[in-house]
Amino acid sequence: MPEQKVVLLNAGNMASFPVYPYAFIQVPAVARRANIEVVCQDLLGIPAGEWSGTIENLQAAARTGHVADHLAQHRLDGSC
Prior knowledge:
29% of the residues lie in helices and 22% in strands. The chain is α/β, with parallel strands linked by helices. It has a three-stranded parallel β-sheet, with helices on both faces. The longest helix has 12 residues. 8% of the residues are buried.
């Protein structure tokens, strides 16, 4: 059983051009080696006014105070 849990949030998506956050694959894989469980949540589709409650619920469910966020800037033409 993991010693620690972290909630990883993605808040960098635009509804008009959603991009899968590869950090959701990379970070949990590396964290597992350190016996850390990562709970991932994309905030796309969740109204900004509900983010705080969503994050609090995720923290309570994961029983952790650790939260990380993934912010990425994407060009509207789809290139990096």
